């Protein structure tokens, strides 16, 4: 009997990114169209501009995704770090969106591979925001206590999933037969929840910020967005508009 194939972190990361992409396409049908059009735009751009791959091979550009999630507390952020470490992703950078042109009560980092070779194999990254409940400009003492209590009593990830993630991170990968259920469980952790919300609580947080409500007004986290990379954003805009899909007027990020 042959031994199971060993999958290093980058292979797990590629599976994770592909799984999230498939899930998000089911949740947001327009995303599937966006990916299809981006793939065609990138191929056409490289065909017209042979030097375009200096920014990365067409394979890498086509595979690249930028995702975003939100969590509510340092404990939840540590759990995210444990999970993403299994995929060879580490926190890079610090962003305080309370200082943005349109301030929101979160601080952020991006989880991604840091080694150049790992980036070339699969560059998936996940921008992760954490609610700044200690900021009195947004949360008075009473509201902060209630938010912190709510967050302390919810569980974003199955403890068994996190334990498995820590083991995989320490080993630098895992066997193929263990990888598939692990990745599937990790992907499912970011699915939109169908659980009901408490409307009065959600509305109270919405008066602070829509982002605060999205983070602490629900019992789970989810993909806030997932975006493919494109080499010619003007051409993407033209083709998407030509398909009758409304596009925003400004580049974000």
From TrEMBL:
Belongs to the 2-oxoadipate dioxygenase/decarboxylase family. Its cofactor is Fe(2+). This is 2-oxoadipate dioxygenase/decarboxylase. Its EC number is 1.13.11.93. It comes from Mycobacterium avium subsp. hominissuis. Keywords: Dioxygenase, Iron, Oxidoreductase, Signal. Residues 1-25 form the signal peptide. GO terms for molecular function: dioxygenase activity. InterPro entries: HGLS. The keyword Oxidoreductase applies. Pfam families: HGLS (PF07063).
